[in-house]
Amino acid sequence: MASFIKKINLSILVGLLTIIPISGIFDGKFFSLKSQILEIRQHLDNALPGEILVKFSTDEKSAIPIISGKYNLEYSSTHFQKVSQFKLASDSNTLDILEKLNNDPAVEYAEPNYKAVAFNLPNDPFFKYQWNFQEDKLNLEKIWSGATGRGAIVAIVDTGVAYEDYFSFKQAPDLENTRFVPGYNFVQRNSHANDENRHGTHVAGTIAQSTDNGVGVAGIAPSASIMPVKVLDKNGSGNYADVADGIIWATDHGADIINLSLGGPSPSRVLEDALEYAFDNDVLVVAAAGNNGSNNVSYPAAYSKYALAVGAVDALGEVTSYSNRGVGLDIVAYGGDLSKDFDNDGYKDGILQQTLQSGSTREFGYIFLQGTSMAAPHVAAAAALLVEKGIKNPEELTELLTKSATDLNSKGYDTSTGWGLLNPLAALKGLANGSNIALEPAEPIVQPNVPPTARILGPDNAYTGKAVDFRGDSSYDSDGYIKSYNWDFGDSEGSTLARPTHIYKSPGNYTVKLEVIDSENEKNVVFFNISIINSPQKDLIIDSIDILSEKSFIRVRARVFVKVVDENGLPVSNAEVKGNWSGSAGGSSYRLTDSNGIAEIASRWNFSRHGYIGFSISQVSFEDADIVWNFDLNKSKIAEITVTY
């Protein structure tokens, strides 16, 4: 592949530094009930109040009502792995209940539902400002000649990704050419994992920002597909239960790699079981080590048997002050340091990608960020390059990435840098410290075209005579693009727009059909049912018209006051009143009614000493999303008026 470097101009740079404080960390192994309860006590401050998670050793369907009654619990939901979530009674003691549950033969284990947070909040511009990608760092230009991550699916389990135009959400412009596969939103419980925070979009950009597109910045594995899985809310906060669900969902839906730029200080069997599930199903989990500079790796990265824990170094390869160290740290990667500018380019040495502007779901900027959250996607993207080469087993990927890492301290493993600094070029050759080995061009991969997937978004019910908005632009093609949209609204009318609007004239149940065609002319069809009912009807009635004349020397004009009410005599505000002038005045005028239902309409000035001015109503209308307002002159008390002067 040709070099992705383009000549580009600098636009917006916004500096931001946010470090999430994380307290000390326990070892995390549940060797006995006593040590388990002690461990829970140590981390109870990090738990969601009144929420616990229970995994049953017996059939959970029969156990749930028994356990609920026995311990005065309120059942909430069941997560993957048959983990059930409960709420405690307001007068219950969390530790007492957990100790009793862990002693109950029907329970395998019980623990609090701990909080999870993003390890950083966002900042980004252009390739020459991405110091971490340059020749003396990752040397991506050389890597791209042989690997770009094609065929790999990387799940971003985070705050979501700005990957689609959907109601108030907008796709990041520099993700326009990035491949996406369907994801899931565990915060709002729907299939639209859009970012409200900025963190997940920045992480996704490091992995697979649209590259060689003439704008913005690059990503390490630009041909990889991103699977957005939203488990953290707009504040970057969430809980372990949703994170575990996100890990399992991504595993079950085809992810090769899962990036976790999140975590917390508390150990959790629920989280560990989810990591084990991913590992057992050949999914590599890459997790950020944490940002409080402690000597303990945060969870879930601390579960080193199942996750690849990533710390952060600065542009000089020195471990950053914020990066967590400790047993279980596997590798370090560039995470940035916003207090330094080693390359003297005028900008602090954060990691640069495009993401959302603060507080917006539609406005974007190129933003520098720092954190192990930024380091982890470097490793996830490097793994995607290896997946393209056919290596998918998490143990093999871990071995290649760690053995090829560049030693930063003493030779071999240490708890500050793990096995060393990520070196994807050497990993691709399967050699430790192989940065001087020429990378051979990748053999072309011939893959069959994947058909597109058609999706329809629209209301289940609507009224006759009212515009109905349909959306087909959430349809997608994982290996190309949607070339055309063909709609059939079920009433012999159609459209070729991605977001059509249609008005149904008659009530009934309609089946809407959407056919999408991709860049390789393959088709996919989806159907959608909508029920149309007659719109509620109301009348607009002219209750009164008053007119007066105004004189200024030899000029004269008329002013009319029209009151509009409904059939119950109640004033209607924001109704549009149109009418025609006669006599000394000519033309037509319109005005909206005020909160009292009165429209004040004035004629133009005329030069006349004597005569008359008349005004007659031609139309009264009112736009309402739910009600059809009818105007009939015959139902009005008066429709015209004249003034003589």
UniProtKB/TrEMBL annotation:
One of its GO terms (biological process) is proteolysis. One of its GO terms (molecular function) is serine-type endopeptidase activity. It comes from the Bacteria. This is PKD domain-containing protein. InterPro entries: Fervidolysin-like_N_prodom, Ig-like_fold, Peptidase_S8/S53_dom, Peptidase_S8/S53_dom_sf, Peptidase_S8_Asp-AS, Peptidase_S8_Ser-AS, Peptidase_S8_subtilisin-like, Peptidase_S8_subtilisin-rel. Belongs to the peptidase S8 family. Keywords: Hydrolase, Protease, Secreted, Serine protease. It comes from Candidatus Doudnabacteria bacterium CG10_big_fil_rev_8_21_14_0_10_41_10. The keyword Methyltransferase does not apply. PANTHER family: CEREVISIN-RELATED, PEPTIDASE S8. The active site is at D158, H199, S373. Residues 451-532 form the PKD domain. It is found in: Secreted. GO terms for cellular component: extracellular region.
